[in-house]
Amino acid sequence: MTTNALQQDDSRLAREHRAVQRLYDAFSLRDPDLIDEAVTPGWDDIPLAPGQGPGPEGMKPIIRSVIAAFPDVQIVIHELIQVPGKIAVRGEITGTHKGELFGIAPTGKAVRFRIHEFHALDGERITTTWHMEDWYGLFLQLGRFPTI
After folding, report:
1. What is the CATH T-level fold of the domain 3-142, as seen in this structure?
2. Which of 17, 23, 46, 102 matches a 20 to 30 Å C-alpha distance to 53?
3. Sheet holding 126-133, edge to edge
4. What's the pTM?
């Protein structure tokens, strides 16, 4: 591999890493519009949350609801594994439950729960995200579960 090819790979990795960080910044910086810098217009978020629409526009209400429930929300990346076009993240969401979430009234409790995500990227932005959050662990910390 030539030096130029290595530099191009490094540049791509840096751009893709920034896109993933920007996705989490939309939550941590409380700015849902940042998602537009992170994902493509046709971004596929798997699985969709109940009532979530497709693409970045469908995610913005979710981000707003998380911010309303946890005004001090932060997403911390504990581990990131990357190859060109793919990023895996082991992270954690932290915050204080000060607003309604899934019908659960505010508890005032500080919480932290794990996330695991796999992102496919096009060299610039995220095209697909497969994710799993530890909602069970969150509900245990809150001492309440949503009603079905």
Report:
1. Nuclear Transport Factor 2; Chain: A, (3.10.450)
2. 17
3. 39-46, 126-133, 110-121, 86-96, 74-83
4. 0.91
